[in-house]
Amino acid sequence: xxxxxxxxxxxxxxxxxxxxSVSNDxxxxxxxxxxxxxxxxxxxAIKAGELEEKPxxxxxxxxxxxxxxxxxxxxxxxxxxxxxxxxxxxxxGNDEVSHQAEMGLNAARKAIAAANKKPEDIDAVxxxxxxxxRSYPAIAIEIQNELGIKGFGFDMLVACSAATFALxxxxxxxxxxxxxxxxxINPELTSPQNNWRERxxxxxxxxxxxxxxxxxxxxxxxxxxxxxxxxxxVTLYSNNIRSNFGYTSYVDDSDPxxxxxxxxxxxxxxxxxVCPMAAEHISSQLEALNIKITDVSRWWLHQANINxxxxxxxxxxxxxxxxxxxxxxLDKYANTASAGSLIAFxxxxxxxxxxxxxxxxxxxxGYSIGSLVLKKR
Length: 377
Hints:
This protein has eleven helices and 13 strands. By secondary structure, the protein is of the alpha+beta class. The strands form three sheets. Strands 5-4-6-7-1-8-13-12-11 form a nine-stranded mixed beta sheet, sandwiched between helices. The protein has a two-stranded antiparallel sheet with strand order 2-3. The protein has a two-stranded antiparallel sheet with strand order 9-10. α4 crosses α5 and α8 packs parallel to α9. The protein is globular. The mean pLDDT is 96.
């Protein structure tokens, strides 16, 4: 496993955390007030069986169900207002930087600095996340323009596996020589797509942005870098995680803000089906690379639900992982879609020493699973 002169490395990473956060207690108080008002305003329809009563929630329920205790949000105004129940974003003109590009730029500049790069050293920009705020022009091209990067950029959407899938595309471009270095950005602005009026999902998501620079080892000049030993991606069609939001709502006469247009999931089925898939995905990848499970020092797993992470880790290790082995960040960040494993990577890597091995893995809607095996340089 000696490093090749043409090996591909992660040379810079960046994490941008919004200044605003919402605690479980704040969310619980707001949601319960909304539910009480909804039930009172619709008492007759509920009694007649035309509407379902809104159940109440508690901070304890949220933590037990997910491990989440708080979440960061790009904008807090409006979320806790029971007459609005969604964040309030100001509309920006076409000549202004978009909200999502602003988030991405904050993380991108950190990653570029960490890699000791300049914009002219980067040939491609990939913005990959669960949602983009518009279809075109691409957010990646907007960020490319703001940073003064030549070359090309594009957006890609692979739900909660968007970050790892984009890192694989970057790895392949650098390996093939079609780009010297690639900047991958994950501006996860999930709060506008969260149904804050729905008890079983309103607490799940948070906002964040991560960024990563991929390049050849021969050009790397950063303090912390990781050789990419291998990448792996797989998809398997499932409707158990879905959002029907899209431009065709205008022509099919459906409610563009109906419940099915937000994040919806069959949580029990997702848990039952994805956990063994993810564990098998990782173990088979390591086996193909002739790496033993016991040789892995760090597991940077997708941060959707603490119970999923614990089960997957147990399947892999045959025991409960230590907090150092499989760090959890969802208690503070919540589910940040594709960025979760990258947050864990950003916040839990500097203690590793040369030749330590770690695995980044994400899993989500699709189903989709993506992973990278890294070795500290």
